[in-house]
Amino acid sequence: MKRTGIAILAAASITLAGCAGVDDNTARRTGGGAAIGAVTGLVIGAMVGSPGTGAAIGAAAGASGGFIFDQISKDQGGS
Length: 79
Prior knowledge:
By secondary structure, the chain is mainly alpha-helical. Helix content is 84%, strand content 0%. Helix 1 runs parallel beside helix 3 (51-75) and helix 2 packs antiparallel against helix 3.
């Protein structure tokens, strides 16, 4: 279980470090996506035997999804 915590912490740190120069909406959406992805990946990974890997992959996918959603929202005139 210790490895899982380290993987989640590393994924969150990398994700949040990437948000250093962006506006609040982008950071919030990217960070929220990463958090949701990490939890979902952790649960699915625990079911198949690798919770740490699942959390890391989920965090990366969630952060990507949150960032893409933010950019699409901006292109459509949202904030």
